[in-house]
């Protein structure tokens, strides 16, 4: 299939549109639309798409955009939206509601720094602030990975064994506004890949029900345990969705993690999103010099892939985590998850906070980090890699 030169936002909008259109013989599709830099072009693409059975609803706020998705999904439609930064923060109440309602909504989160001070460039603090919502989270490292992951996200979210919403994240401007050649998904094959959306608890005239009513503590506990059990089923469902994607589209999508030269590595760096793409080139160059350095790209943040990560780290002596995010009073958010994963091991674990507020994470910065990590005999507090002004 011929590639198309396009931005990440265009690729995301197109993929959401063809996924929604694939449900035209069922209950159609619907999305709530509210603009915010740097995701606005996604909503603009969707507003201009001629759905056979669907509607994009412009609203007055991000909170309402997710409210539209909740209502659409409760009616059995395939639902989706996009947002960024303070828009995600404003949406928070309904983000939690969508997860607790067990609705298979897909949302594109174009990562942008939360303000104030106001900053329109990338860091992951906006989507990671929602890490305790009942949503799956995937972080994409390229335009093609973004396209393919969105399709897989619908397949996993709508699986009866999961039935949870999915957030697909990309780096603001670095991915959203740059152009790359992408194999966009054609409607015919998307129709084959995505079954009709079936929300088992959707509202029906023949069976009136209330949604969001009061429950007692024991019922709430059971509800949260049900969500946890659904999360635990994600690895199997995701593996099946990836296999089927390869069968339909002829290429393989990365799963929860992806590794590079970890089999014999003494030192491993962990990264996500586009930092992983830069790190990959640095690690390959180091390998050519005979250094036993490897890397792990964490794509799936929720549910966190603990067992896969432990297997990939194997016998490595030192692990560094690159965090384009920060939890005040703690450190990098990916690092804290990796630390919980490695708590029963002797691995030296070091956190490096880099690219906060959209600073470039260059190969030179990554070389400096690797030099520091390989020379360490003990871990320190999270280290900030500040960009000279």
Plain-language structure description:
- The protein is α/β, with parallel strands linked by helices and 389 residues long.
- The protein has helices spanning 8-21, 40-47, 62-74, 85-90, 92-100, 125-128, 143-157, 187-193, 217-249, 273-288, 306-313, 333-341, 363-374, and strands at 4-7, 29-33, 54-58, 78-83, 106-111, 136-139, 166-171, 179-182, 257-260, 267-271, 293-298, 300-302, 318-323, 348-354, 383-385.
- The model has no long low-confidence stretch (mean pLDDT 97).
- The strands form three sheets. A seven-stranded mixed sheet has the order 3-2-4-5-7-6-12.
How are the secondary structure elements laid out?
Layout: E1 4-7, H1 8-21, E2 29-33, H2 40-47, E3 54-58, H3 62-74, E4 78-83, H4 85-90, H5 92-100, E5 106-111, H6 125-128, E6 136-139, H7 143-157, E7 166-171, E8 179-182, H8 187-193, H9 217-249, E9 257-260, E10 267-271, H10 273-288, E11 293-298, E12 300-302, H11 306-313, E13 318-323, H12 333-341, E14 348-354, H13 363-374, E15 383-385
Parallel strand pairs: 2-3, 2-4, 4-5, 5-7, 6-7, 10-11, 10-13, 13-14, 14-15
Antiparallel strand pairs: 1-8, 6-12, 9-11
Helix pairs in contact: 1-2, 1-7, 3-5, 7-9, 8-9
């Amino acid at each position: 299939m011929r590639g198309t030169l396009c931005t990440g936002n265009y690729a995301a909008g197109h993929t959401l549109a063809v996924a929604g259109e694939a449900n035209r013989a069922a209950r159609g599709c619907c999305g709530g639309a509210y603009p915010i830099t740097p995701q606005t072009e996604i909503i603009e693409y969707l507003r201009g798409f001629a759905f056979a059975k669907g509607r994009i609803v412009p609203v007055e706020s991000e909170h309402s955009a997710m409210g539209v998705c909740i209502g659409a999904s409760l009616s059995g439609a395939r639902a989706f939206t996009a947002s960024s930064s303070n828009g995600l923060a404003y949406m928070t109440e309904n983000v939690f509601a969508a997860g607790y309602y067990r609705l298979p909504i897909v949302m594109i989160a174009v990562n942008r720094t939360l303000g104030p001070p106001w900053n329109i460039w990338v860091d992951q603090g906006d989507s990671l602030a929602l890490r305790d919502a009942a949503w799956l989270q995937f972080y994409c490292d390229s335009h093609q990975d973004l396209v393919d992951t969105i399709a897989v996200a619908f397949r996993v979210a709508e699986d009866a064994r999961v039935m949870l919403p999915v957030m697909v994240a990309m780096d603001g401007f670095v991915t959203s506004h740059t152009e790359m050649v992408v194999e966009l998904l054609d409607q015919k094959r998307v129709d084959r890949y995505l079954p009709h959306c079936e929300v088992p608890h959707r509202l029906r005239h023949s069976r009136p029900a209330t949604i969001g009513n009061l429950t007692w503590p024991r019922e709430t506990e059971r509800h949260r345990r049900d969500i946890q059990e659904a999360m635990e089923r994600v690895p199997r469902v995701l593996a099946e969705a990836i296999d089927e994607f390869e069968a339909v589209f002829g290429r393989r999508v990365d799963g929860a993690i992806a590794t590079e030269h970890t089999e014999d590595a003494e030192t491993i760096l962990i990264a996500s999103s586009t930092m992983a793409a830069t790190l990959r080139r640095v690690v390959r160059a180091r390998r050519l010099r005979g250094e036993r350095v490897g890397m792990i790209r964490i794509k799936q943040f929720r549910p966190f892939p603990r067992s896969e990560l432990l297997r990939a780290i194997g016998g490595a002596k030192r692990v560094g985590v690159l965090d384009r995010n920060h939890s005040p009073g703690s450190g990098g958010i990916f690092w804290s998850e990796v630390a919980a994963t490695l708590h029963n091991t002797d691995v030296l674990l070091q956190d490096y906070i880099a690219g906060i507020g959209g600073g470039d994470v260059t190969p030179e910065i990554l070389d400096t980090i690797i030099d520091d990590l390989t020379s360490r005999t003990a871990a320190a507090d999270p280290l900030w890699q500040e960009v000279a002004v």
